[in-house]
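Lay summary. Proteins are chains of building blocks that fold into shapes, and those shapes determine what they do. In this project we predict the shape from the chain. Here is one chain we studied, written as its sequence of building blocks.
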Amino acid sequence: MNRKQKSLRLTLVSATLLAVLATGCNSNSNSNGNSSGTASSSAPAGTATGTGTAQANPTAAEVNYPASLTYWVQMNGNAGAIMKTYNEMAAYQEIEKKTGTKVEFQHPPTGQEKDQFNIMLASGNLPDVVEYNFGSTVGLSASQSPDALIKGKQILRLNEFDRSVRA
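And here is the predicted shape, written in a compact code that computers can read:
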């Protein structure tokens, strides 16, 4: 069961990274296509420049990434053996370069994740992003269940926050 949870978490993190990188790449390719009035050699074959490109660019131009954000997540035991924080990962460093957003990872001590999660919720001092594994609800009270936390507006369902996300 633990191996499945780790695999699921790794898949989720990988998908999130790919989505962020794809967004950054799409933003750059759209702005490059809009910088001149003629078709560029970097545009895919059969792609027309003009109104189609102009319509796609306002969406890409409207993306304003925050200057920084805090991200609370349990550190994978294997990663913890070779690094102190996910900020040391090349993939996260690349995302920071592409978005211009500094990410400050907060990792609870191994074995204290549930306690630290509960303390964080009780204090009301929440980071911008919390990644928590609700797969094991052992030791959680009914008020700490995902449904209760959603109703209390302490956590958001991502598919309700952004309709393009599928859960």
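What the prediction tells us: DSSP finds seven helices and three strands in the chain.
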